[in-house]
Description:
The chain has 496 residues and is mostly beta strands. The protein has a domain at 161-262 and 265-363: Hypothetical Protein Tm1070, Chain: A (Sandwich). Helix content is 4%, strand content 47%. The strands form nine sheets. Strands 21, 22, 23, 24, 25, 26, 27 and 28 form an eight-stranded antiparallel sheet that branches. Strands 12, 14, 15, 16 and 18 form a five-stranded antiparallel sheet that branches. A hairpin with a 5-residue loop joins strand 10 and strand 11 (155-158). The longest helix is centred in the first third of the chain and has 18 residues, at 9-26.
Amino acid sequence: xxxxxxxxxxxxxxxxxxxxxxxxxxxxxxxxxxxxxxxxxxxxxxxxxxxxxxxxxxxxxxxxxxxxxxxxxxxxxxxxxxxxxxxxxxxxxxxxxxxxxxxxxxxxxxxxxxxxxxxxxxxxxxxxxxxxxxxxxxxxxxxxxxxxxxxxxxxxxxxxxxxxxxxxxxxxxxxxxxxxxxxxxxxxxxxxxxxxxxxxxxxxxxxxxxxxxxxxxxxxxxxxxxxxxxxxxxxxxxxxxxxxxxxxxxxxxxxxxxxxxxxxxxxxxxxxxxxxxxxxxxxxxxxxxxxxxxxxxxxxxxxxxxxxxxxxxxxxxxxxxxxxxxxxxxxxxxxxxxxxxxxxxxxxxxxxxxxxxxxxxxxxxxxxxxxxxxxxxxxxxxxxxxxxxxxxxxxxxxxxxxxxxxxxxxxxxxxxxxxxxxxxxxxxxxxxxxxxxxxxxxxxxxxxxxxxxxxxxxxxxxxxxxxxxxxxxxxxxxxxxxxxxxxxxxxxxxxx
Length: 496
């Protein structure tokens, strides 16, 4: 027989007291004024991250960068020291010499930075393109915007924010996209696992190796999707992570040239595509339906003259799990926006014929607080304009043009104008570098909806001559503050 063990009475009493105390903690505690916040708090953005894809061609690239509240000052703007650092994201597995980070510390300065290609250690004299992370902290984090540009400073693709679910919609092989390349960049210390799915006009397609793609920390992985877009006029690409997050970009090329495909908003039953300019030939509308239910999509153009149905009153039928392409009829003599509504969630984008493969614009969210387009140029080359669309209520908008700084001052010359956009109309406003700017220099545009305005969508459009579209840059919110939701104190009982 095993000997019996007795617990002293004092220990039992102590244990019961602890249990009673835990039980008390587990009960709801009456809230006091200090424990409950009934309103949200507005705090300054103190950290921001982006990732720029590798420059095409394997050489060095250029990044237009502006950070640190280039718009009107706010009492909640982050104060104190800050820094923006551009650090290399080398191709996974590439044997490269290390490239030093590039730092900026002066808020409000528009800079055109050259990011070098990485020299290879395996082949003497060769260089390899690599992605770059852009990290802003402190006073340099609010309203940070970075765009990859050409040698002139004209933005070609926005340095994207990392996420876990990203969509792209654009042409397939039979619409000119002979090559389709996907760049996946990881700016975190945790390896990311990525699944890539593609929908074409014939339905979903999948290739070996497109699920469970590992993107190592602080590296770039490049995947070719050309075979998946073969024999289709349209492809929709969904990048989703099961572990971690990545920044993603899609590059398409044809015999005439190449273009970056902007990401579009997540599939939705209502969306707006801003900045669809007139062109010498008809633009193309691309729609993808990721669900099994068929879609009926209504398209409404928001023009400077008012509303217009480019496809008539009938809805466009698109089968579930498929993608659709249709040419747009002319929308008038100036830029417009497209409002798409559907019975089921869809994704959409527009290709406007122009130089190379053409210029893309995609569905965006309405501008919250402000948006910044950093890489703009005018002069003897292209001319720039901002297309502002108000699909519901009227909007008053401040446009601020900031010149490139060459002297290290907090900002280059700037000028502002306030314009009014009528409800259910589009307004196109030409923009140019402020007076006093260096000839043919880069300039930024800050787009700020004023209080009381209805939802506002915008895009920067650059054209050469009368109708050749050079570039479209949909405007994305560049926040200086964020709202923290109400919170209250709570207790949690832990049982062994």
